[in-house]
Amino acid sequence: MTCTEFLAMIDDLIDDTVTTEMRTELQEHLRTCEHCEVTLNTTRKTIQIYRSHQIYDMPAGLRDRLHNAIMARCKKGC
Amino acid sequence: MATIQSIAGENEQHPDVALVVRVRAGDVSAFDELVRKYDRQIFRIALHITQNREDAEDVMQDAFLKAYEKLDQFQGNSKFYTWLVRIAVNESLMRLRKRRTGKMVSIDEDIETDEGTVPRDLADWAPDPEQNYTQAELRRILEKTIKGLPPGFRVVFELRDVQGLSTEDTAEALGLSVPAVKSRLLRARLQLRERLSRYFHRKKSSSKIGVEK
Q1: Which residue in the set B68, B124, B138 is minimally distant from A53, CB to CB?
Q2: How far is the alpha carbon of A49 from chain B, nearest alpha carbon, in Å?
Q3: By the CB < 8 Å criterion, does A14 face chain B?
Q4: Within A1-78, where are the H helices?
Q5: Which site among A15, B4, B43, B207 is 20 to 30 Å from A57 CA-CA?
Q6: pLDDT tens profile A12-69
Q7: C-alpha closest to that of B134 among B122, B142, B126
Q8: Between the CA atoms of B118, B119, B120 and B122, what dihedral angle is there, to the nearest 10 degrees?
Q9: pTM of the model as a whole
Q10: Residue B58 C-alpha from the chain's centroid
């Protein structure tokens, strides 16, 4: 397996949607390719960091203000 | 984080369906529950597309109001949240058009770029790279990094990897094909990885090494 072929399958490996045979092939490639191992691990880490440090949070005040506006308009009949 | 995925049961009735039924019967407080459940996620999606906090606030409000008005059109065969995201995405795109910024933004535009699909930065990261930054610094890095991606990539990454939607639900919410979602997700993940590498490299001769042992 080449690095290009490995990269084409990296999402399926991360999402655990590969067949047993394909997983074996991918792991075989990883044993001999440090670059792909780094890419896999750091891609996983990228996802994990974005999951655990959610960006673009709404300030609590804004949430309440918008919430009240929505409910007020809905109660009037929207 | 996993709230959406965990409530998205396959064949059993989704808890949102019961709330929708209550709203249709005139119980506004049930809609209140739906708002509080999803407002943060909708706000983030709107901000990913509009890149403007004021617009994102308006989009969030308009999307929920529209959902309330059109609740009769909601079909039980799609998930309420998927349906809501689709409204929010359309509202976000409309907001951009109103601004007439000259930059047309489209979710279904397939941006052909090799950037990030071939990893160039192959150095390993520090074991817990985020710990080298304060929470505020890290947040700035993550926001700046994802801003550099095309809008269609940002939204797919947000829905699939941050909010935990399935590929199929993401495709439905964005009006994209499943292969298009997969292609964008792969490129989004690899591009983000590449861009974050400059911040998270393992330092070869860092002054922090002395702290380790």
Answers
A1: B138
A2: 8
A3: yes
A4: 3-8, 10-14, 20-32, 34-52, 60-77
A5: A15
A6: 999 999 999 999 999 999 999 999 999 999 999 999 999 999 898 887 777 787 778 7
A7: B142
A8: -150
A9: 0.86
A10: 17
Find which of B128, B142, B146 to mutate to test the A interface (most A CBs within 10 Å of its CB): B142
pLDDT confidence of residue B116? 53
Phi, psi of B174 (to 5 degrees): -100, -5
Q: Which domains does chain B have, with CATH numbers?
A: 3-99 (1.10.1740.10), 129-203 (1.10.10.10)
Angle between helices A34-52 and B178-200 (to 10 degrees): 100
Using a CB–CB cutoff of 8 Å, tell me whether A5 touches chain B.
Answer: no
Question: What's the token pair of residue A71?
Answer: 């409910």
Q: Which residue has the tokens 């999803």?
A: B38
Look at B119 and A69 and tell me if their CB atoms are within 8 Å: no
Instruction: Report the residue of chain B nearest A50, measured CA to CA.
Output: B162
pLDDT tens, residue by residue, B27-37: 888 988 999 89
- The residue ranges of chain B whose pLDDT is under 50 are 1-3, 5-9, 206-213
Per DSSP, what are the bridge partners of residue B125? Answer: B201
